Amino acid sequence: MKAISFKAFAITNEINLNKIATHCGIRKKFTWEEPLILKGDILQSILKKSSTEMEQVLVFSFGSLVFINVSKEEDMVTFFKFIRSFEPELDLSHVERYMDDYSLHFTENEPIELTDEYVIAPNYEVYYPELISTILAKSVALEKTEEQLEKIHDKLEMMIDRLEKGKLRIGNKELARTMAKIIRHEYNTISYIMILDKPDITWQISDANDFYESMLEFLELSDRHKILKDKTEILYNIMGGFSDISHSIRGLFVEWVIVILILFEIVLTLVEKIF
User: Fold this and answer.
1) Does the first or last residue of the chain, that is N or C, have fewer Cβ atoms within 10 Å of its Cβ?
2) CA distance readout (Å), 8 to 27, 60, 74, 92, 247
3) For 25-71, how does the pLDDT look when each residue is reduced to its tens digit (9 = 90+)?
4) Cα dihedral 73, 75, 117, 186 sign
């Protein structure tokens, strides 16, 4: 059997699968943990050209796409434009920023072998395309989230520089915006990309579960997920420190205002008694 190619992209934070499914005439309510698989006549109508039986595109709710055996760039661009009709904020000029290539090869009488660029299997199993696509989709989405976390780190570093220069006051709006970015990052990573959740088929077929776990471990998704969680906890601790400093400064300011008002009242009283 010929090798199967995979090309994964993380293009946005969220894609409404049910809107696309309704447009394509798919009468199914998609939940957040399952991908929308487009192939056959539906894929041909989107790409406006004929396609083979093995060509398909998996769309994930957390903003990733995986093209299977779709190698022509113009076909991918056509599909990106199709997705943009449902997600207008999608910037087509940056769709290749977070991407990964992978392939599945077959060698009889050989055990499964995983590498950074391909996997070798003794024979074809129906669950291979979906499981490989799911792992790749999560990997590129995680890569995008990792870069967003670095931007938050840069922002906090600027705030720390200001503290070192004695500029202790930090506005509530600035604190709120930074905290919102951290919460959004945590939501996108833990709640939406669902690193720790597994496809339904892994609960039904033990070999599928073993294959999925092997790929998950080889591509270090669990380790990357743990590192992100640890970094997020550090960010929360830093923001807690900023918040405490800000509140202390405001409390000290209020105390000084009260002291000044009391002194002013005493001075007025003395002036009235003297004159």
Assistant:
1) C
2) 26, 11, 16, 15, 46
3) 998 888 777 899 999 999 999 998 888 888 999 999 888 999 999 98
4) positive
Burial class (CB in 10 A: 0-12, 13-18, 19+), 144: buried
Residues 242 and 236: their CA atoms lie apart, in Å, by 10
* Residue found by looking up tokens 């309510």 in the block: 29
pLDDT in tens, 204-244: 899 999 999 998 888 888 788 777 777 777 676 666 666 66
Statement: residue 252 has pLDDT above 70: no
Q: Which of 131, 142, 133, 140 is nearest to 198 (CA)?
A: 131
Query: Can you give the pTM of this predicted structure?
Result: 0.75
Give the full edge-to-edge strand order of the sheet including 4-10.
36-39, 56-59, 64-68, 4-10, 99-106, 118-121, 113-114
| Domain boundaries, given as residue ranges, for the chain | 4-131, 138-274
CB–CB of 217/119 below 8 Å?
Answer: no
